[in-house]
Specification:
Strand order of the largest sheet: 6-3-2-1-9
Radius of gyration: 25 Å
CATH superfamily of the largest domain: Superoxide dismutase, copper/zinc binding domain
CATH topology of the largest domain: Immunoglobulin-like
Oligomer: single chain
Helix content: 25-40%
Shape: elongated
Mean pLDDT: 84
Number of strands: 9
Length: about 180
C-alpha cells in the first residue's frame, strides 16, 4: 500500500491530536462563602441589626470570572446599595470593588476580575456589605472566605483544532 500525501497529513493530525489530549490544561474553580450579619458591620463594631444573609461564590482562575448568589433577611429598612469591598481584614473598611444588584433578593451576578482583585479575593480580603436606608454605611457585612478548590481538566486547544481538521479532511474526501 502506497502512503499518499493526504494519508500522511491524516496520520500527522491524528498524532498531534492524541499528543495534545494527553496534556490537558488545568483550571481551578474556587468556592467561596460569607455569613453576613450585623456584628461584622462597621469594621466589626457592629450595628445591632438582627439582619442576616448568606453568600455563595465561585471563581474560575482561567477565565477570571467571579460569580455569586446572595440572599438576606430581617433588615431594619429597604436595601439602598450592596457591594463587594476590599482589600480589608475583618476589622477594617475598604472601597467598593464590585457592585451587587440589590433590586432582587436573592440576587446573583458575575464579574471579570483583575489580577489584583483576584489576589485580594483569594487571600480573604474582600467582604460583602449590604447597605440600607437606616444604615448608609452598611447594615450587615460578611467576610468572603475562600473554600474548596476543584481542579478541572479540559482538552488542549490543539486537540480540538486537530479533531476539526480530521473531520474536514474526511468530509472533503467524501465530496470529491
Amino acid at each position: 500500500m502506497k502512503i499518499t500525501r493526504p494519508m500522511r497529513l491524516l496520520v500527522c493530525a491524528l498524532f498531534c491530536s492524541l499528543a495534545s489530549i494527553s496534556m490537558p490544561s488545568q483550571a481551578s474553580i474556587i468556592s467561596l462563602s460569607a455569613n453576613i450579619d450585623g456584628a461584622q458591620a462597621n469594621a466589626g463594631a457592629g450595628t445591632g441589626s438582627a439582619g442576616t444573609g448568606l453568600a455563595a461564590m465561585v471563581f474560575d482562575d482561567v477565565s477570571k470570572v467571579f460569580s455569586w448568589d446572595i440572599s438576606w433577611a430581617g433588615l431594619s429598612s429597604p436595601v439602598s446599595a450592596a457591594h463587594f469591598h476590599g482589600p480589608a481584614l475583618p476589622n477594617a473598611n475598604a472601597g467598593v470593588q464590585v457592585p451587587i444588584d440589590f433590586s432582587v433578593n436573592p440576587t446573583s451576578g458575575n464579574a471579570i476580575l483583575s489580577i489584583i482583585q483576584e489576589t485580594d479575593l483569594l487571600n480573604g480580603l474582600w467582604y460583602v456589605n449590604i447597605h440600607t436606608v437606616n444604615f448608609g454605611g452598611g447594615e450587615i457585612r460578611g467576610q468572603v472566605i475562600p473554600g474548596q478548590v476543584t481542579n478541572v481538566s479540559a482538552p488542549g486547544i490543539l486537540s480540538l483544532v486537530m479533531l476539526s481538521m480530521i473531520s474536514v479532511f474526511y468530509a472533503c474526501k467524501r465530496i470529491l
